[in-house]
Amino acid sequence: MTGEQTEKPGRKPRIRDAEATKARILDAAKKEFAKNGLGGARVDDIAEKAKANKRMIYHYFESKEGLFQTVLEDAYLDIRSAEQKLHLEDLDPKAALEKLVRFTWEYYLKNPEFLTLVNSENLHRAKHLKKSEIIKVSSRKLVNMVASILERGVKAGLFRSGVDPVQLNITIAAVGYYYLTNRFTGTIIYERDLMAKDALEQRIQFNIETIMRLVTV
Amino acid sequence: MTGEQTEKPGRKPRIRDAEATKARILDAAKKEFAKNGLGGARVDDIAEKAKANKRMIYHYFESKEGLFQTVLEDAYLDIRSAEQKLHLEDLDPKAALEKLVRFTWEYYLKNPEFLTLVNSENLHRAKHLKKSEIIKVSSRKLVNMVASILERGVKAGLFRSGVDPVQLNITIAAVGYYYLTNRFTGTIIYERDLMAKDALEQRIQFNIETIMRLVTV
DNA sequence: TAAAGAAGTAACTAGTTAGTGCGTTAATTG
DNA sequence: CAATTAACGCACTAACTAGTTACTTCTTTA
User: What is the pLDDT of residues B42-81, one digit of tens each?
Assistant: First the structure.
């Protein structure tokens, strides 16, 4: 009676979809790596959360580190792509710079996993990111965009000259990143709820002020 | 000749020394936790590096997390203590602020373990630091010091009023911390050796400029 | 439609890891 | 000097963990 094809009432039909499974694994992995770091993440937990078999992880990503690398690369590509969609070149220099500062802040706020992934990667001395050429290319675009905003600002007599676009880029990231990645220790050290709605509002205003004063003549 | 016991010439110094063993464990643990994070650190490796038996770690610190907590607390106490030794109250507002920016940068540069420990603690939502009252007290002193510098600067007509000392404190830390903790990914993203001597020199100048422009009238 | 191949699974392995039980040895004290 | 206390070490374990083997089930296509 083994050849019986009639489906049992409680049995779900097994749907096969490689892309969907891959995506579920990547999504679960992103959360797990962000929550526990590369070392603390558990492959079994990722498989369970993704509703996939652990074997599939090794089938699609070769190893735990291979999975981490893909997660990290995707995360960088996502923020770089979102930055390009801002079309800062269509705005006047001041508005463009403010929009970038605001965007960076809001992206970190809405995607806290990005911060933890980057921290984790730095703990491992960027060994995974080193292998990625596409990340370099897409980052170059961002630096060029900031350089262009600065140039236009100088020409318009709004910004002082001599500001290094790389340093500016780093600083725009820094004032948001540090506040948010260290929000837990920060809340204790400064005895203030750094994640309260008005605290966040105050911080983004402070960051805009910081960057604007930095470039203004 | 006061403390001189009846020590025989050829005799080795004390083989048993609880304080020395504790100190060796803490030192080894700091390095191991900084290098691999709390999750990635190995208790066996710490014991080996400390030239102590693993049993001693559990004897003195109860658990891996107990050891981490002590390491973290010591790290915070060290930077807070160093900050107090700057005697910023003896300097004029501008010099005091610049000295603090420079000190913060140099402390991070010389003590990169501090950055990784703080990152690790934030990955764990500050569960260890939460338990420490002494950290809050010593941090309060720093915030008060910055508040006092700001006040003196405003009175002297050098600084604008309305700058939140907590936000300023956070920003002073941010511009150094982000650059250094993300030096590995940063070197790839910005295609520039961020740790080259002239790059470091350029960054500290940029940071001073950023903070000074932020508070100046 | 049959065969190939891709998607998916359960159970396993070999190595690792935090934490301990219990005995030994050095220093202190009555 | 004996008794006590504290420092120290060996060897173990129970649980965990990345990665694999060997298999079944579904989908595509010649």
Answer: 999 999 999 999 999 999 999 999 999 999 999 999 999 9
**Is A123 in contact with B143 (Cβ distance < 8 A)?**
no
Any strand C atom closer than 7 Å to A99 CB: no
Residues pairing with A216 in the sheet: A159
DSSP states of B2-68 as a string?
A: -S--S--TTPPP-S--HHHHHHHHHHHHHHHHHHHHHHH--HHHHHHHTTS-HHHHHHHHSSHHHHH
| DSSP helix, strand, coil percent of chain A (3-state; round to 5) | 75, 0, 25
Domain boundaries, chain B: 15-62, 70-215
Superfamily the domain A71-215 falls into = Tetracycline Repressor, domain 2 (1.10.357.10)
A59 CA – C18 C1', rounded, Å: 31
pLDDT tens, B29-38? 999 999 999 9
Architecture (CATH level 2) of domain A15-62: Orthogonal Bundle (1.10)
Instruction: Return d(Cα B38, Cα B121) in angstroms, integer.
Output: 8
What is residue A206's three-state secondary structure?
A: helix
